[in-house]
Hints:
- With 523 residues, the protein is mainly β.
- 3% of the residues lie in helices and 47% in strands.
- The protein contains two helices and 42 strands.
- Strand 26 and strand 27 form a beta hairpin.
Amino acid sequence: MKKHLFLTLLTVCVLFSCQKGNEGGTSGGVDPVGPIGPVDPTPAVVPIVPVEKETDLSTIGTDYVAGNGELLKGILGKAVKISIAANSCVYLQNVTISGSTEKDFAGITCEGDATIVLQGSSSIRGFKATCPGIFIPAEHTLCLDGEGTLQVRSNGFSSGIGGNGNLVIKNGEIEAHGGYGASGIGSQRYFDGEPNGEPASWDMSKPAGASHAVSGNRSGDISGTPWKYEQWESSMSSSMMYYYDNGTFRASWNNPSDYIARVGFRYGSNYEKSHLTRNFGADYWYNRSGSAQYGSVGAYGWTVDPLTEFYIIDDWFSNNPEAYLGKKFGELTVDGATYDIYAYLRINAPSLQGEKTFLQITSLRASQRKKGHINISAHFNKWDELFHGQTESVPSTSGTSAYTVQFGKLSELSLLCEVDGNGSGNIEYTYFDLRDNYNDGRSLADCSFGNIWILGGKVSSFGGENAAGIGSGKSSACGNITIGANIVSVRSVAGVSAESIGKGKDGSCGTVEIADESKVVRD
């Protein structure tokens, strides 16, 4: 495999950063290790007040806090934070918040107790993948009321309506969608150090925002994200790359001798932190077609001190690349498969530091896939174990050479597609999330939700993989759930290995009380 100077990489998706200032907060009565006990009485909610002010979100250009008696309407045109002031009643009238970038906030953030009155039809999506569509802070309550409709969802891994507080639904038509491991209404997933799985229920409509065309050999920033893009090819052809505002991208090629498209982090040659100090991971879903003599899809990057190029190959075109990867040094079983680990010595080859000799390390997955989670840190740790500064005989471009093998300090990390050998085809990443800290020190309480009362209206809630439709996400907790007799209907759809209403996989939930089962559909 030929390598070149690639910029890019990595996302700082800080799980707890959706709501600053909640450190150490509780979860609205949630016991993070188990059920909560008897159902709590319905809490007092912020009263409905007449409309005193109207604000068109299309005119908002900076972060904005709506106050008591304010009506919000229109389409939010910029990636800015919309909040509701504590102890406020706010009206939503035909509001659209698309959450199209990896900005560090939910679609709507409640700063304390709040009531939202629904008028017309509104759609809310969170911004950062780990932030919900609507965020409720710990020890506070949101009440949904009114005659309108609301569709609310996360932008990847959180709940449609989530955070750490309590929810009361009195009226309206609510449709909530959770991301992978997260409930539609309730808690998101808690990462226990090795998130994993096939994201069968991820939203495939992820390409969002403007489409930016890249022609020729070029790289640059993706505005509003921590990532960079890069396209590189060794011979000019009709190859083309397009990236979107949320990191997803697509590319096509036509008979290049070597072609690369990628998006991710570039830390630089002076990256101050070892790869051992963070929890790196990627989640992706893509479609591809076409052919190439050689091609690989997966994670890619460089280290410095020493200079090392690395691949984690989850998929390939045409031929299995094993014959090109050098000497096998070991194996790693992670993310549902075994990866064989190889090393090859590139002598005076193109690199991010010019023409250099460097070690190329590759983890090759035994079975191909086009969606899933890559526990990148697990590969880093295994490579440290296998390549720790000893001298080894390594295949090279000029035979077998003795070389000191070691994995260095991370400089670049990305998700890429690389093809060689005069084929033509295309690839489109419809889901992209690359991060350098999956846990970020969050406790189970940080990921847990409070109590839920559905007392009226029509509610449909869809949980992601391993998550309840209404209740807890994977490995997290939710409080008590009460569904009253005066509802129109409730439909709750669970992800695989989760309860429809109640517990997600390996999660916990308090008491579930339903007054009229004939009005409730569990799927």
